[in-house]
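Summary for the steering committee. One of the milestones for this cycle was to obtain a three-dimensional model of the protein with zinc ion bound, which we needed before selecting residues for the alanine scan. The sequence and ligand used are listed below.
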Amino acid sequence: MSYYQKVEWTVTPKTAPKVIRNCPKCGEKTHYINSTKFRVNANGKNIDVWLIYNCNKCKSKWNMTIHERTNPKDIDPDQYDRYIRNDKELAHQIGFDPVFHKRNHSELVYDSVEFDVSVNEIDANEITLNSQEITIRCPLNINLRLDKLLADHLNISRSKLSKTLSEVIPLKKKICDGMTFVLPSNY
Ligand SMILES: [Zn+2]
């Protein structure tokens, strides 16, 4: 008996990408780590919010601007509350958000991002040949190539994947939410 199985792979990053910046104290380009802490400064009628990064060598701080001299009415109260509470999930989300990084001219390093994959079966039908239809769930932009995800999750080398699956799966594509492909059983 064979199955055509539909599954979802939910990819959840455990760490946010590092940022490359020139560290004034180290005198060279270093990696900065997302501290998951915010700094909120109310100055008269305006509010500034930053996400704090630390140099991984000397621990110097770099504040990434989230809001600059913003009228408090323009900040969602729930969001403001999350800044004050140093909400980790929000700090993690912003750490992946290309909009903030572009505005701050920060260069992201994705190589160090670790991730978990959880698998859920959606549907299964009996057919003549075993295969799996996989849909990727990953709302954050984690800049991860499909072959890296498959190699890690299936525990096979990228060169073997490239030999056996490059014809049927877009291995070099970056994963995105909703991406679907069919994984044959004989990879
Ligand atoms: Zn430094």
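Key point for the committee: The chain is about 20% helix and 45% strand.
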